[in-house]
Amino acid sequence: MRRDGGNHISDPVCLAGSTTIVISPKNELVLPCYHLGIKTFPIKNNLFELYQAQEVQELIALEGRLPACEGCTINCYMQPSFAVEINKYWWQALPSTIKYNREKGTWKRLLFKS
Q1: Domain range annotation of the chain
Q2: How confident is the model at residue 114 (pLDDT cuts 50, 70, 90)?
Q3: Under a CB-based contact definition with an 8 Å cutoff, are residues 90 and 83 in contact?
Q4: Which residues pair with 22 in a beta bridge?
Q5: Cα end-to-end span (Å), the chain
Q6: How far is CA 81 from the centre of its chain?
Q7: Do residues 17 and 78 touch, judged by C-beta distance below 8 A?
Q8: Which end of the chain is less crowded, N or C, counting CB atoms within 10 A of the terminal residue's CB?
């Protein structure tokens, strides 16, 4: 992705708003991502309803399309983005995703669910 110049607003791969929920230390939802932080919304023990609100959904719809998103390669947003749409980055990220999950043992949670 870095070799391709990162995210391109004309054809975005970033899905930060819909794959990652960012909560600030002040208990606010931060959109479209922590790094841009264009807007924050107080959660007030109502994250589910807040996330469904029209203004929040409108900001999420702009994920990867804002001028500041051009060229972005922030991995903590790109890795989840690669997990939900199969494209060339999905395939390129797959080996490191498998290695991470194998080494961190995240797969064990699937075996021991009640």
Answers
A1: 16-111
A2: low
A3: yes
A4: none
A5: 39
A6: 6
A7: no
A8: C
Is the dihedral angle over the CA atoms 107, 103, 23, 18 positive or is it negative? negative
* Closest to 53 (Cα-Cα) out of 14, 61, 16: 61
d(CA 78, CA 52): 23
Token couple for 98: 């498998």
CB 32 within 8 A of CB 16: yes
Distance CA 32, CA 14 (A): 10
Measured at the CA of 63, the angle between CA 62 and CA 67, to 5 degrees, comes to 75
* Whole-prediction pTM: 0.73
